[in-house]
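Exercise 7.
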Amino acid sequence: MSIAESNIPVLESHQLAIGYRYPQNQSLVLARDLHLTIDRGQVIGLLGPNGSGKSTLLRTLAGLQPAISGSVSVMGQIIRSNQVRQTARMLSVVLTDRIDVNNLSVFQLVAMGRYPYSDWLGRSVCDDNNLIYTALEQVRLRNYASRNFNELSDGEQQRTLIAKALVQDTPLIIMDEPTAHLDLPNRISIMKLLRTLADDTGKSILFSTHDLDMAINNSDQLWLLKKGGVLMTGSPSELMTGDAFEDTFISGTDIADQKNVSDYFLGLKKRKSGD
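Solution. The predicted structure, written as tokens, is:
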């Protein structure tokens, strides 16, 4: 059954608790009882102060680290941290860490996204060239296929990594701060690209960010994770009508800065209401 034909959520979590396990069965729980849903073609922005657990949540949803308890499923299949190849066919991940791939070309790096479909010798089981060039076309890098990845600008490198996620051919793409190292024009370009890809391909995209304006303008839903594990969800317009943003980000500030945070969000709401 294709993504388009299915009515089940692309991602769903049940009673999910995230955090870290330590020896002697000790655990640090950052958030618990998370019931999250992502539907087909949705763009979801995850925001919150530093230390609230955003990266931990993304890594748990992606199967990169085990949940403390509960479950995560993609297209109805449970995601397990020890089933790498199966997980790689259900979701693709673009992390914020800079990578050094020596002398790999853009084409070679993007081709690595096809590894879940290779045989035990590492050979592709079908001709993947068309998929790779299509992905490069989607991120406007087709003419860069033979370029060395390390010679690209930050924005071009990020688009290359998005192309690698696209050729992995998964219903869900998870991204940790995709605009973290980029200047303003490239931040705008990447966010518009993610919105376009979701609309054109039906893929769902979940990304974390500190760029509030970009998230509000390009997301169908926002997940706001405050320190202490409270997570609020809703459309940007719904969350803007209440105190959700202030409540989320004041939890990560000193008392002296709380008025500044409140004033910032008051001004943001006034600007948005005047759009």
